[in-house]
Structures are given as structure tokens and as C-alpha cells.
Design goal:
elongated; mainly alpha; 2 domains
């Protein structure tokens, strides 16, 4: 979830003397090359993500069985997710999932693929890497954005309720946690919802909607900006990211 932290925060070595001739891809080039490989292997990747087993898509022993694959019925959603990843790798914006159910499939598929790709011999256990280390890093960054945004889409209503929850109970009726964090007044729920949608949009490569806010000299616009900053600060402190490994 590091990418979500970075997006929210946006709202509120030793050098050797000898020259090095090692070829290093810049991040933009690495993203393009990763997208090319993903496009070339589109069918195999989407089939692998939704493979129910017990054999892999080539009829061999299924590997990495500990990773949770996506139900085959969600193949169209996974195909849409992989297309979105390709767009983001190429520096283009993309539309996110249309429904909370679709968003759950996107998040699950992005997490699986993030853990599935190999960018170095140490990760491959006797076979060639899928791509270079820099290409794998570019893809993992984008997959992290897609996973974070999709989780936010699938839980948007709950997230907004949590940010504006006056207490004394949590949004699910349990004990209110992290009471030291300052929540936003419930009267600003609409603005908080706009902020959450803004975060999702930025993670999917879309431009900021802040340009649609009235001139900052107007009191109403200033209030919206302050609400967004307050809500973003709360959410940044609230989220807990998964550990990959």
C-alpha cells in the first residue's frame, strides 16, 4: 500500500571512482518493455491468474499453490485489469472497475500477479526470469497502484463512513479503534467521498479534479480543500498494507 500512502500525501550510496558501463533501463523504458511482454503473453497471464488447477496452463505440475488465484468466472474482469496495467505501464490513464464486485476481482488478480512475476534468477528457482529487474519493479509498482485503488473502490462507502464516523462505535458496530486520529465532521461526507474518488482516479493515472474546485479565494473552496487534506491525512494514517514475500 506504499503507493496509496504516496498518493494521499500528495494531497496534504557510495559512488565508485571507476566508470560503470552496466546498462540500466530508466523507469519509463522499463515500463514500456514490461507492457510489451504483458501484451505478448496476455492470454497466458490471464489464464494463469484464473487457473483452478490442479495442473498449470501447460498441463504440468502447478507451482506456487500457496498463492490465491481468482475464480475463473471472473476472467473478463481479470482481462480488464491486465489491460489497465498495460495502459498504466505505457503512461496512459485507465478506467477502474465499475462495481465493488469487479473491484474485488481486480485487487485479488493484481496481488496474485505481483507475487507471481520474477525479475531475477534468485526468484525463479531454476528457470529464466520473466523480465529484467527494472521491468519487474515497474510492473510491481503499477500492480500495487491497481490493487490499492481497487480495494478502495470496493470499500469506498465503508472508508467514507470511517473517515466521518463520530463514534462511539466503529462503522461495523465494533469498538472504535485508533481514537487518537482526528476524523472529519460528518457534514463533510460528500467532500470526503469526492476525495476518495480523487485518490482512486490518481492511482489509475487520471488527472486531478482539483482544477474544478472554485477559486481558492472563495471561502467554500477553501473549506473543501481543507476537508480533503484532513480526510487524506486520516486515511494515510489509518491504512495498513499487506506484507509481500
Amino acid at each position: 500500500m506504499e503507493c496509496l500512502h504516496t498518493c494521499l500525501q500528495g494531497l496534504v550510496g557510495v559512488i565508485e571512482n571507476k566508470p560503470s558501463f552496466e546498462f540500466v533501463q530508466d523507469s519509463e523504458q522499463a515500463g514500456v518493455e514490461a507492457a510489451k511482454k504483458l501484451i505478448a503473453n496476455f492470454a497466458r497471464v490471464t489464464q494463469d491468474i484464473t487457473n483452478p488447477g490442479p495442473e498449470n496452463i501447460d498441463g504440468k505440475t502447478l507451482t506456487q499453490e500457496e498463492l490465491q488465484r481468482v475464480d475463473p468466472k471472473n476472467l473478463p474482469h481479470i482481462q480488464a485489469m491486465v489491460r489497465a496495467v498495460c495502459c498504466l505501464l505505457l503512461g496512459k490513464e485507465t478506467s477502474g472497475p465499475a462495481t465493488p464486485e469487479e473491484a474485488l476481482a481486480w485487487a485479488q488478480g493484481a496481488r496474485f500477479l505481483n507475487l507471481r512475476i520474477h525479475g531475477s534468477p534468485d526468484e525463479c528457482h531454476g528457470r529464466e526470469p520473466d523480465m529484467s529487474a527494472s521491468e519487474a519493479a515497474a510492473m510491481r509498482t503499477v500492480l500495487g497502484r491497481v490493487e490499492a485503488a481497487s480495494k478502495l473502490v470496493s470499500n469506498r462507502d465503508t472508508v467514507v463512513k470511517d473517515i466521518t464516523n463520530p463514534g462511539p462505535r466503529g462503522v461495523n458496530g465494533g469498538e472504535l479503534t485508533q481514537t487518537h486520529l482526528k476524523r472529519v465532521d460528518g457534514k463533510h461526507r460528500s467532500s470526503v467521498d469526492d476525495m476518495v474518488q480523487e485518490v482512486c482516479g490518481r492511482l489509475f493515472g487520471k488527472g486531478s479534479k482539483m482544477t474544478t474546485v472554485k477559486a481558492l479565494s472563495e471561502p467554500s473552496a477553501k473549506e473543501v480543500v481543507l476537508v480533503w487534506a484532513e480526510a487524506a491525512g486520516f486515511l494515510a494514517a489509518r491504512i495498513q498494507g499487506p506484507t509481500y514475500g
